[in-house]
């Protein structure tokens, strides 16, 4: 399409006059038509950007019309900005940036902010022969300048003050404003935004509210964000922290403590030893400490802006290196059921004492107790299990030392006698012509002394716990007694056992008495005699007279028969 000429044209003036006359004559009728939604002016694109071009299209009209007249602000001769005659392509405009296409669309180049406003177009509807007025709005936006953030309080106090931040922009075309806190959208009950979002208020600020804060302004064609803004929130001091936390030091060491507390502005520090002010720095150093430096050390932190203060205590103990203690006892050799008293001697006052038995920490029972600040150990009703090695150990938080061991012996016994071999009954059988070693076993300390008696008579040959029978004879049968005694405990114990010498022992190895064996022998002989008599009777019946003769001879010889010893 050729560019419409903007030179004056006589035909155009005639049409303009006719349109103006018709507009005046039927003004109220046409205005009613213009308010309808059938025809409208629509910007394309919807928003204009400064320096760019935009087209105002007429929507709702499809009929070709002789001409188009465009107005800005209102439909009046003084507000006319462009007239276009379709047939001739003639354009009359008040601004060289304006152009009208053949379909009546208004084109505006090099947009400026002042182009913003209401736009109207009038044209003759060929169908109804009425003048149609269509209206639309054009919004032109320019690039936004960077906004800035201001605060009502540049140093708010934590949990005390409220703070309001305002986003300020020199641009007037801002359509939307958003806030960011640490790159995230504001959230929480303490955050309040004004209706236009320009002001953000924080209720009862905390140190977590320091930011950074940013505000962003937007319009349809531009976005710009402020520089980060950080609140200088005053707070603290919190409870101080003391390092190191080690509370124990040896005599002669250097005591160094450091105190810190979270605070803004930084806290002022004071050290107190047992309530007395010492230094006014975060660090405390005391060389070559002595026992007198034991006590309570306090770090006090204060903040002159918030008016708050806080403190922390640490208990410091100065101790000597523990020297070796000495252990003694009322006796080192005690009789069972007696009493033992141990004493642990040390040159340190108030030092802790640990008792050991056979190298292991002593667990007290109902017979044992400590006294004199644990320096004395008493054991009542001593038993043989209390014999062993005793030590005491002194210790403090920085060192320990252990005494030399003290050996304790316990005299006891003799106890119950146990024979070996140990028969089920109180009788041991020994086969004739064999040997027997009889051992008398007892528990005793010191070892027991022994005496053996046979049938009540002392046998001086055997003076230890062993009695030996060699080549046992019938005379070795009898009652044997073992007597054991302890010269220290003055206790003794005796036990009897019966020794039976037998001809032989059963296959099962059972121990049978002499009477039982004799009974068995007699029974066997009787059985043999009975069998012989039975054989004789059977033989006599078979031989008849011969048998009788034999019987007569037997009878005649009977008086001369003499039974042998049974």
From TrEMBL:
Residues 547-566 are annotated as: Disordered. It comes from the Eukaryota. Keywords: Disulfide bond, Glycoprotein, Immunoglobulin domain, Membrane, Signal, Transmembrane, Transmembrane helix. InterPro entries: Ig-like_dom, Ig-like_dom_sf, Ig-like_fold, Ig_sub, Ig_sub2, Ig_V-set, IgSF_CEA-related. Residues 147-232, 237-315, 325-409, 414-498 form the Ig-like domain. The chain crosses the membrane at residues 516-538. Residues 1-34 form the signal peptide. Residues 547-556 have a biased composition (Basic and acidic residues). Gene3D superfamilies: Immunoglobulins. Belongs to the immunoglobulin superfamily. CEA family. This is Carcinoembryonic antigen-related cell adhesion molecule 5-like isoform X3.
